[in-house]
Amino acid sequence: MLRIVIAEDAVLLRAGLVELLERVGHRIVAAVGDAAALVRAVDAERPDAVVTDVRMPPAHRDEGLRAALELRARHPGLPVLVLSQYVATAYATRLLGAGSADRGGLGYLLKDRVLEVGDFLDALERVAAGQTVIDPEVVRILLARHTADDPLRRLTPREREVLGLMAEGWNNQAIAQRLTVTEASVVKHAGNIFMKLDLDPVEGNRRVLAVLAYHNNQAEQST
Description:
Elements: E1 3-7, H1 11-23, E2 27-32, H2 35-45, E3 49-53, H3 63-74, E4 80-84, H4 89-98, E5 106-110, H5 112-115, H6 117-128, E6 132-134, H7 136-144, H8 157-167, H9 172-179, H10 183-196, H11 205-215
Parallel strand pairs: 1-2, 1-3, 3-4, 4-5, 5-6
Helix pairs in contact: 2-3, 4-11, 7-8, 8-10, 9-10
């Protein structure tokens, strides 16, 4: 059971998240509709995880994201799963780049994933366990944004496939199962990827963050 704070200004979606998460055994210690209330609830309840929308009152811009960043600074390691209506890679890179200093779980998902109940619950549990989860559509766009001299062009098709799964937060064993290859093969591909992108082969969240940081200067905010 996780103690969870939910921040979502859409009343029906907020109620739906509460019902879904409580039905599978989690405890919702607060469900709020704006960023200020989110900060107060986390400070008061010290939850196991936070699920928050990006755009919230009063301006409906990035209040939820900024609150998440503030809370991560005030409560290092706090697992946060951010939900977004649109593919906004700039939001993802801001969230994940700011989270590189600690090992707490982070996630960035499109709201459509909530309708895929199993995937959503799996993502939340992985974030709560300290993993990084990025929406596959965001990963696809990040990996597609490259120029002629981008080092990503150095990667083989299989290495790009492995990199995409790495950026979604899967560990080597899970990637091996998904690609029907050995774990040793994944380790070899990962080593080649880090070498070709001039990145240190560090396991865990930092390898995902390194990939995203590399693309940070290309990320454009979607609307």
